[in-house]
Amino acid sequence: MKYWTFAALAIVLAVGLALSGANEYLFFAGFVVLQAIVLATGWNILGGYAGYVNFGVPGFVGVGAYTALTMHLLIKAPILVQIVAGAMLAGLLGLLVGMLTLRLRGIFFSIATIAVVYILDAVVMNSRFLGGATGIQLTRPTDVWLFGTYTRMLFVVMAVMAVIAVSVARYIQNSHIGQGLRAVRDSEEAAECSGVPTLKLKLIACVISGALLGVAGAPMPMYLSYIEPASTFNLHYAVIALAMPIIGGTSHWAGPLIGALILGSLQQIVTVTISSELNVLVVGVLLVVFVVAAPDGVIGLIRKWKTSSK
Amino acid sequence: MFGLLLGCFYAAVSLGLSVAFGLLDVPHVAHPALLIVGSYGAYLLGGWGLDPLVSGFLLMPIFFLLGMLLYRFYYETFESRGSAAGVNGLAFFFGVAFIIEVLLVLGFGVDQRSAEAPYIGESLRIAHYRIPYRLIVAAGVALILTLVLTLFFSRTFVGRAIKAVGQDEGALRLMGANPVKIKQLAFGIATSVNALAGAMLIIVSPVDPTMDRLYIGRAFCVVVLAGMGSMSGTLVAGLILGVAESIVLTLFGASWATAVAFGLLLLMLGVRPQGLFGR
Predict the structure, then answer these.
(1) Is residue B261 over pLDDT 90?
(2) How many Cβ pairs closer than 8 A exist between chain A and B?
(3) Cβ–Cβ of A288/B256 closer than 8 Å?
(4) Nearest C-alpha of chain A: how many angstroms from B79?
(5) Contact B77 A292 (CB under 8 A)
(6) What's the CA gap between A238 and A40, in Å, rounded?
(7) Is the CA virtual torsion B193, B199, B204, B209 positive or negative?
(8) Is the pLDDT reported for residue A89 higher than 90?
(9) In terms of Cα–Cα distance, which of A100, A97, A115, A54 is closest to B265?
(10) What kind and span of H or E run contains B126?
(11) Where are the domains of chain B?
């Protein structure tokens, strides 16, 4: 109950901000942080709960983005339709990748997901319709119902998506799927022997995780009003989507949320004040430091602190 | 022909990974990043007029120590805690790869760098074929390197010990040997091979800091194709990749060529994950 009050409050707050006269930049930057929440939460369903590291995040983000672009080009679909279509195709990609590789040990799955990124990259590069290597410029609607500017509207849409993503992750964690996935992470053989349908559960996780990553990517063309493959299929998405849950804590749904809020905001600050190269360095260093010193993330640190102070 | 030479080079690039990942089971995604470090090392020493290959040899001991340290650190933080197999080890190396990449960007900028040597830029002409000397040199060194490593792993005591660790660590411990020390040594060797391979890379083509991402695909493709830790298999797999890439390059153009390694890798993982020469 408490959770849903918070979720509703978050959405109300986002709508309120968008209706207020706040600076446009706030929404531009806020969108990125909200997108980070969706990315981190989506990644964590497979990576955190089941222990299968997906390096292919840019592939799923790219499928989301380019599906949205296709919908926009073909039928001028509104943003929500674009997002749903992006999510569906990215989920389908998750299913395909999963069927191909989930029978393998963890590391092979990870390498295979990197492969997916580069293959999709090559496909887009060679597609004239999707803009090829040079990319495609879009015009977005100038006047938007209620919110005035498109960026504000996207901000609210992304806030709703973030709440949905976190709710899905929370539901999965508490359901039998989450229990099964945890068993897979701790010992796949043991889980299999005790009758956990490991492959089915991993496939479900792969589809949901892929769909959420697609959701994170789908608004990108409209957000930037421009899209090109080099920055879309960039492994940067993979590091941040991996770093945020690990910094926050991978075993709980709130972990990616915390990680995304910390890292997403920090990145915005570093990018604005110093440089965007350094921002990647910050992500890398934080990732390594947390993996080495605090593998259970911020949540793990809080738990430890609580038990020691009792 | 071009493809075969390129293939020898790919094999050389993958040899280190074949030891680190194939034999030791370390999810070393930072390996290609270290390869690029090797290239930049050769570039820096090239500033003093040294031939890239000589620089590569000079850098090998430093890389050897670096590799030993890296493995020691990895062992202490992950393997000894028993948390290596999962998310943490992979995330660690992925993070390390990105840190290396950014440091290179900060140090050298994003521009491409190339090395200078008398054999770069010239071509050997046979009838109407032109074969660049740079590829011949790289392929020659690669062949020698493969041969040396194959002999090392089959003939010397240390080499056999490393193979034994890869097969059954527990048994080795029971025989009274220290598997960690041997693995550390092997990781050092794997990393030092990178110094030379990096030098070859900068001979073959100009390098930029984000190039390691492509070589993640190529190197892992070759190692998986070869079947985890087989040295001669690595050479054959490298040749297959080199030929496949150059065929795609001439038939479909450069934008598809980079996807070849990844496509081959996916295919292999889906169809025969134990590799062509796997046990």
Answers:
(1) no
(2) 122
(3) no
(4) 12
(5) yes
(6) 10
(7) positive
(8) yes
(9) A115
(10) strand B123-126
(11) 15-210
Residues B149 and B193 sit within 8 Å (Cβ to Cβ): yes
Could you say which of A51, A118, A285 has the minimum Cβ distance to residue B99? Answer: A285
Please give the structure tokens belonging to residue A293: 């010193």
φ, ψ (nearest 5 deg) of residue B110: -85, 0
Assigned domain for A293 exists: no
Residue A306 lies inside a defined structural domain of this protein: no
CA distance A54 to A90: 13
> How many C-alpha atoms does A82 have within 13 Å on its Cβ side?
27
Residues 164-223, chain B, touching A (beta carbon < 8 A) = 213-214, 216-217, 220
Q: Closest-CA residue in chain B for A132?
A: B255
Task: Determine the 3-state secondary structure of B272 from DSSP.
Answer: coil
Q: For residues B100 and B81, what is the distance between their CA atoms, to the nearest angstrom?
A: 25
Joined tokens for residue A110:
């990870």
- The CA distance from B108 to the nearest CA of chain A, in Å, is 12
Go through chain B and tell me how many residues it has.
279
Residue A1 pLDDT: 64
Count CB atoms within 10 A of the CB of residue A134: 10
**A131 contact residues in B (CB cutoff 8 A):** none
pLDDT confidence of residue A59: 92
Give contacts of B98 with chain A, Cβ < 8 Å: 239, 280-281, 283-284, 287
d(CA A230, CA A222): 17
- Give the total number of structural domains in chain A: 1
Does A261 reside within a domain?
no
The boundaries of the domain holding residue A152 are 2-234
Q: What ipTM was estimated for this complex? A: 0.82
Question: Is B232 an 8 Å CB contact of chain A?
Answer: no
B200: tokens are 């070859």
Exposed/middle/buried for B163, CB within 10 Å: 0-12, 13-18, 19+?
middle
Best B17, B87, B213, B251 member to test A by mutation, with max A CBs in 10 Å, is: B87
String of DSSP letters for B131-182: EEHHHHHHHHHHHHHHHHHHHHHHHSHHHHHHHHHHH-HHHHHHTT--HHHH
Tens digit of pLDDT for each residue in B116-163? 766 666 667 776 677 777 788 888 888 888 888 888 888 888 888 887
Closest CA to A121 of A174, A60, A173, A164: A60
**Is A209 part of any domain?**
yes
Average pLDDT over residues B68-79: 84
Please name the amino acid found at residue A109: F
Measured between its terminal Cα atoms, the distance across chain B in Å is 30
The nearest CA of chain B is from the CA of A308 a distance in Å of: 22
Output the six-digit token pair for B248: 């795609």
Task: Verify whether the Cβ–Cβ distance A288 to B220 is below 8 Å.
Answer: no
Contact B269/A122, CB-based, under 8 Å?
Answer: no
- In A, which residues are within 8 Å of B17 by CB distance? none
CB contact under 8 A, B217 and A114: yes
